[in-house]
Input
Amino acid sequence: MSIQDTLNTAYSKWMEDDGPESQIVISSRVRLARNLSEQPFPHVMPQEGGQAVVEQVQGVIADPDAREQLGPMFYVPLEELGPLDRQILVEKHLISPQHASDERPFRGVALSPDEGVSIMINEEDHLRIQVLFPGLQLDAAWEMANRVDDAFENKLDFAFDELYGYLSCCPTNVGTGLRASVMMHLPALAMTNQAGRVFTALSKLGFVVRGLYGEGTEAKGNLFQVSNQVTLGPSEQEIVDSLLAVCRQLIEQEQLGRQSQMRERPAQIEDMVFRAYGVLTNARLINSDEAMFYLSCLRLGIDLGLLHNVSKRTLNELLVRTRAAFLQKDAKDAMDSFNRSLKRADIIREALKVSE
Output
């Protein structure tokens, strides 16, 4: 697999629709922040330091012993990609918006062929190891992230303090350096106006709820990322277990909300689902916010057994295929909002036609 395959294909491993609790949970992510002991943090590191980090990471990826734990991976220098291609990697959740916009040299990403593992190099930290799996698979994601971490730590000297743990550019990542997050579809909590109350309660317990692309992004299409805030003190397994417990509670509340809505407002729910299907299969112009809302309605319709001719994998892929950078990818000239809406509607109609 090459970077062009990644850029030309919307699909990533996290889009599979057969993960545990997939009726509510889209994906599970574990990310580890790591830094090399002999180099300054990236924001104060000279260019030669950045080059040294890249070379060491490439050396580990090519090392036969490390590859037994890592599996095959390929490295992509971000300076060789244009802004549009970098944004596609953001839309596929393979790199962060910050990594895409940073113009410093010697930044890159290492990817597994199925894109389940991605490693950002010289972002806020020297390494950001990410594992992204479909459905509620935090334990499996942590197990894989730990294996990748071990493969690098066997070859590299990470910055570590006996008292504070792994050292990071950002104090909020010191300790385990672990951020776990779960992307959830919570339309019932939103419809019943419970989401705000529930998310406020979560923040008091040390968790944070963000939008589709994490920090600083707005929740759209009833998609929310729930993640831990505390990285210092509890162990990695304790962080994962506590987030799992919270997610199971959210799943239960969402399921109860859906049952309540279908019991008390069946006609309104059915109308919302089939109206969304009618719009998406016939509209000629759809903006981004409309697409996210109507795709959310279709996802709910599938989970409630109202729709049988659309797959959730198709909807997951459309989350990427209908974003601005991916729409622009095949266009020869820059597209304005009108033409993006035109192409977005065409892509959705064709995708749903195939699903029929």
